[in-house]
Amino acid sequence: MTWKSGPLVKLILFVLLLTAAQARLGDTEAELAKRFSRPISITSHSIYAQGKRFVLGPTHTYKQDDWYISCDLIDGRCVRIRYSKPGDWTEDHIQVVLNSNGQGAKWDERTKPGNKSFQRQWSRSDGSTARWSRGGSMDLEWDAYTKAKATVEERAKVEAKKKPKL
Predict the structure, then answer these.
(1) To 5 degrees, how large is the angle CA 96–CA 37–CA 19?
(2) CA distance 154 to 141
(3) pLDDT tops 70 at residue 17
(4) I need a labelling partner for 69 at 20 to 30 A (CA). Which of 14, 15, 115, 131 fits?
(5) Distance (Å, rounded) from C-alpha 144 to C-alpha 25?
(6) If pLDDT is split at 50, 70 and 90, which confidence band does 14 have?
């Protein structure tokens, strides 16, 4: 029996390569650096609340083959990830990303009937979410991002209600 490079072998190699190239929700900055080496860029991610801009933390962007992986960090942990690549996504691509970011929990699909070819959504029992959009990207948010954002928004509301010192 000879070893041939058929479709199954190519799929297995693809899944192994993609799994190794995945950032994961909850990864520390050190874990990201170990997995990817240096980011191709570091920017910041912010939200706007009560007319003010609040920086939540750095965004590290990595390139792995044709994939771009942008990781938003808060308190040194990856809380939001965007995976993007040129071309079509396969079901295997989507499942590898979800499985790499399961953290032991199961993703439940919440896609509305009829939308599956344009946009898909998943959630986990801990409040984490994932959304794939036709056109080349998949976004995942850890519940820690949602909590940090809500904390900043509440702080902004309190600040906005303070009486001015005129």
Answers:
(1) 10
(2) 20
(3) no
(4) 115
(5) 10
(6) very low
**What does each C-alpha distance from 137 to 17, 82, 119 come to in angstroms?**
18, 7, 10
Q: Which residues pair with 68 in a beta bridge?
A: 63, 84
Q: What is the pLDDT of residues 39-73, one digit of tens each?
A: 999 999 999 999 999 999 999 999 988 899 999 99
Residue type, 128: S
8-state DSSP, 61: E
What's the token pair of residue 74? Answer: 């808060």
Q: Whole-prediction pTM value?
A: 0.79
Any idea what the Cα angle at residue 15 is, between residues 13 and 21, rounded to 5°?
A: 105
